């Protein structure tokens, strides 16, 4: 327990002092090596870091992120949103439901919440304001609906969890569909209440001919989720191969079919994706080294012994897990949270008899909540940059959705069937 306390205190001090996350993870790893495992060779850190990220599965992350940025710059995101609007836009507050459905649709081809905030915000924020939604609610809805991208496959969060724990990515993706829909429906209920309160009306009902025309215009865009999810669940692609295909498909559609991207824009988007991926993989590499020392020090076994001594069962343990993730999510980015907490907590969860897919959904919902939790939720700042709004305004709009998120989190935590039903049926 001395090692646990040392890592926690040092990481907290570095975080408060304003150090970058790679240093918040890396300096404790170096300190643990020097203080507790000085007999190990000096090359152990770079070796563990290199070996940790030298896995084919992780190639899915840069390709899905690149595809997400391509679609955000092009027309695929807009045309997916047009289909949702044609189907539900006539309902009271229909543009709000369009925002949620559009975020889920974009999430199903990107796996990135920040990319979803940027893409959906530019498209739908002006429309939400035009039809009469309050400014703060519109901001909160855009940010919160993007959380579904962390649950709906191909979720980057679930890929990282599967990499850390060895859980089937296909099973996690299947579970993420159900949990993502639950979160989307919860946001829709809040949207319905707000629409009635603000007197928001829907669009004129689209006729069958208009709906058919919209779907036909979005045919190539709709092909993206079919390609990714259909390829994975039919066994045609692995998740990594599906990620590669998503980039090829996005470039083909945006440049040759929709002609929304040129070579100059493609190069700029590629540069942005490279920088983003470099940051993620640096964190993954350093987190691998820290996880190695956590395992070497038998921290999971120590935690199991402590919980058994205190007679803590699954119900209390999961409450502790949720509190730990919620607090961490206020200050730390999602990948770093997983790298810090999952290696220690996952073995304890398995010892208590929890399903690995169910535990993965609990982690993912907590990560999604952390993306919009003040003061440092990442999506809050992405929305502020995209929409040119003060972060304080966005935080004010997010509070009602945080309550909804907590309700969904409790349901997912204590009703395992919500997470395991679809994987059990499909796999």
TrEMBL record:
Domain TRAP C4-dicarboxylate transport system permease DctM subunit: 10-418
Family, per entry: Belongs to the TRAP transporter large permease family.
Function field: Part of the tripartite ATP-independent periplasmic (TRAP) transport system.
Transmembrane region(s): 49-70, 137-164, 170-193, 214-236, 242-261, 273-294, 314-332, 337-354, 360-382, 394-415
InterPro entries from the UniProt entry: DctM, TRAP_DctM
GO molecular function, one term: transmembrane transporter activity
Keywords from the named record: Cell inner membrane, Cell membrane, Membrane, Transmembrane, Transmembrane helix, Transport
Family matches, as Pfam families: DctM
Tree of life domain: Bacteria
PANTHER family: C4-DICARBOXYLATE TRAP TRANSPORTER LARGE PERMEASE PROTEIN DCTM, SIALIC ACID TRAP TRANSPORTER PERMEASE PROTEIN SIAT-RELATED
The protein's assembly and partners: The complex comprises the extracytoplasmic solute receptor protein and the two transmembrane proteins.
UniProt-annotated location(s): Cell inner membrane
Membrane topology: Multi-pass membrane protein
A Gene Ontology term for the protein's cellular component: plasma membrane
Identification of the protein by name: TRAP transporter large permease protein
